[in-house]
Design goal:
The chain has 177 residues and is an alpha+beta fold. The protein has a single domain, classed as Peptide Deformylase (Alpha-Beta Complex). It is 19% helix and 30% strand. It is built from three helices and eight strands; from the N terminus they run αβββββββαβα. The strands form two sheets. A five-stranded antiparallel β-sheet has the order 1-2-3-6-7, with helices on both faces. Strands 4-5-8 form a three-stranded antiparallel β-sheet. A hairpin with a 5-residue loop joins strand 6 and strand 7. The two termini are 22 Å apart. The protein binds nickel (II) ion.
């Protein structure tokens, strides 16, 4: 168990595509998931992708449960999602504010598919197949983007909708990312 250093935007490792997990029984995978969990919890993140701690595997985790960084968001159960595949369920897009542990202290307005099906595997290799919407769908799209080397600022349509959290949302006491 360890809290790992989160790489920040500018590190080329965040821009590389991640490899699929091939061995679900490995000790290394189990340790990776524990480290990701501990790191996300320590930083009050809504999610974390393995490349953010320098591991180029298709593993993401997410959880929203009265998260102080997203006080108005619906709850999302703690999920480990490996080798994910995303399928938008409609053409609807919705703009929403996002932050990222790799882009600390900032928020940007990002369009995401409103309705999403995601498939993959949990840490034990059991299949996951969920259809979700809203903030849950947004978190999954953000995290899976990390597996393709995409950080949310690359998806902001108008860079005027990008700035420092404490300036964009003064007095809301949103934690640093
Ligand atoms: Ni992120």
């Amino acid at each position: 168990m360890a809290i790992r250093e989160v790489l920040k935007m500018g590190d080329p490792r965040l821009l590389e595509p991640a490899r699929p997990v091939a061995d679900f029984a490995s000790i290394e995978l189990a340790q990776l998931v524990v480290d990701m969990h501990d790191t996300m919890r320590a930083l009050d993140g809504a999610g974390l992708a393995a490349p953010q701690i320098g591991v180029g595997l298709q593993v993401v985790i997410f959880e929203v449960n009265a998260n102080p960084r997203y006080p108005d968001a619906e709850n999302v159960p703690y999920t480990v999602l490996i080798n994910p595949r995303l399928t938008p369920l409609s053409d609807a897009l919705e703009a929403g504010w996002e932050g990222c542990l790799s882009v600390p202290g900032m928020r940007g307005l990002v369009p995401r598919h409103t309705d999403l099906r995601y498939q993959g595997f949990d840490a034990a290799g059991q299949p996951i197949d969920r259809s979700v919407s809203g903030f849950h769908a947004r978190v999954v799209q953000h995290e899976v983007d990390h597996l393709h080397g995409i950080l949310y600022p690359m998806r902001i349509l108008d860079l005027r909708d990008f700035g420092f959290t404490e300036t964009l949302f003064p007095g809301q006491n949103l934690q640093d990312d």
